[in-house]
Q: What sequence folds into this?
């Protein structure tokens, strides 16, 4: 017997949303899991992949039980003014009403047409964004964070940091009410992960000196495969955020690929100029920076804007990683994969450029009768206020996320050590998980003080000269 779909449901929009969510999910598992597993030292391949795998699983539980409604529900009454637009009321989304009812963002329901797919599609789509954020953050602490501390950190951070970010910018919170925009997570995801990863790297402490001096990738082809999944998965990352299978989704996908390609090429040319060699790791860094920077802008800018974002997101993070990374705070903090450069700085570049390059003729939402519902006008088109609110939103995310990450880690440190012991750092996966990436027999620990590594150039993100003591920020 045929049962008709609910009147609100559009099969095309629903299918695209579920497809987009799956593409974004693939960016974490296996995308980042195998990218991390390939780009780290061999003894850390299993641990790095496990950090991604665990984060993906635990965030789904948190998101379903309380996180989604904290990010996209009715506002929690914390006070007046700004405090009324900080976070939503925690609530599960596991009953039939939520799973098959029409998706709705309460505070935005009057500003956009009704979403034409079920709440369960919305919850899952937003979950894969929530999940990938701590996976990105992990890049700052690979190769030394205690896995038990990681198990505590991820659900707490997702609740107190990610859900708050999501509500303030996406759920109709006070930054959204101010006019700040973040199309698909340049601030909510990438600046958040980059800043928090950098703070976490400072609080947890550095890797062993031997690992900082020699942390060459154990399998670059595997890393490239993970990077490829990341690039193509980004079509769902940005293409799914109009919430409709419409012209804006197509423009967002096209702009995403333009920016990624241009940033990759720019980074590669800078590498060639500096070292006379084209680096695969450098190309991956450039690709990531382009994808990150276009994320807050993808459905607001035209192709020329995407081109500019690609150029600047290839150049600016390259400079901060390869030049500023050797001095000051960047040198003192052991940010394993340089997430502060490839995510925080790239995300900031894209978010601010959105305030400059947003084209009012690029429309995000289309109503039932084809009327325009939402477009953003940047400084270049006569609206300097957009750049101002983009800057304010950036400052809020940086300060709040950095401070909360510091507090969360310090509290966890009272319960379980944040950093693995030096003995565990010597052996890596064999001691931490009792498994190795190639299944080699696990033997006794190496003698104290024994290091076996050959001198070789390190990744651009790893150019540190000495181990600094743990930093209290």
A:
């Amino acid at each position: 017997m045929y049962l008709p779909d609910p009147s609100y449901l559009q099969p095309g929009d629903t299918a695209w949303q579920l497809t987009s969510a799956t593409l974004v999910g693939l960016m974490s598992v296996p995308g980042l899991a195998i990218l991390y597993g390939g780009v780290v030292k061999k003894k850390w391949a299993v641990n790095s992949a496990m950090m991604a795998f665990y984060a993906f699983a635990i965030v789904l539980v948190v998101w379903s039980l309380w996180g989604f409604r904290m990010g996209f529900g009715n506002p929690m009454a914390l006070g007046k003014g700004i405090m009324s637009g900080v976070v939503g009321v925690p609530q599960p989304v596991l009953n039939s009403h939520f799973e098959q009812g029409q998706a709705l963002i309460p505070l935005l329901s009057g500003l956009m047409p009704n979403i034409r797919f079920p709440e369960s599609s919305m919850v899952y789509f937003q979950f894969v964004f929530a999940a990938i954020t701590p996976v990105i953050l992990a890049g700052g602490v690979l190769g030394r964070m205690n896995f038990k501390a990681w198990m505590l950190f991820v659900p707490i951070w997702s609740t107190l940091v990610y859900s708050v970010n999501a509500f303030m910018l996406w759920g109709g919170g006070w930054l959204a009410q101010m006019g700040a925009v973040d199309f698909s997570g340049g601030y909510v995801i990438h600046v958040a992960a980059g800043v928090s990863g950098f703070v976490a790297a400072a609080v947890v402490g550095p890797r062993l000196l031997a690992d900082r001096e020699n942390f060459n990738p154990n399998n670059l082809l595997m890393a490239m495969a993970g990077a490829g999944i990341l690039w193509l998965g980004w079509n769902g990352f940005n293409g799914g955020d109009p919430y409709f299978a419409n012209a804006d989704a197509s423009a967002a996908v096209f702009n995403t690929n333009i920016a990624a390609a241009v940033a990759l090429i720019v980074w590669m040319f800078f590498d060639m100029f500096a070292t006379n060699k084209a680096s695969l790791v450098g190309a991956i860094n450039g690709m990531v920076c382009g994808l990150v920077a276009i994320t807050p802008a993808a459905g607001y800018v035209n192709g020329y804007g995407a081109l500019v974002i690609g150029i600047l997101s290839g150049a600016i993070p390259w400079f901060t990683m390869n030049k500023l990374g050797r001095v000051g705070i960047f040198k003192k903090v052991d940010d394993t994969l340089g997430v502060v450069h490839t995510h925080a700085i790239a995300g900031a570049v894209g978010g601010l450029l959105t305030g400059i390059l947003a084209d009012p003729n690029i429309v995000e939402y289309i109503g039932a009768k084809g009327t325009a519902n939402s477009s953003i006008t940047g400084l270049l088109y006569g609206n300097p206020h957009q750049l101002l609110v983009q800057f304010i939103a950036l400052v809020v995310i940086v300060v709040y996320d950095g401070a909360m990450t510091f507090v969360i880690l310090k509290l966890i440190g009272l319960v379980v050590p944040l950093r693995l012991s030096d003995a565990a750092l010597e052996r890596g996966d064999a001691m931490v998980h009792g498994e190795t990436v190639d299944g080699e027999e696990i033997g006794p620990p190496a003698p104290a003080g024994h290091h076996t590594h050959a001198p070789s150039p390190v990744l651009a993100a790893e150019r540190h000269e000495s181990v600094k003591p743990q930093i209290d920020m």
Residues 11-39 form the longest helix (29 residues).
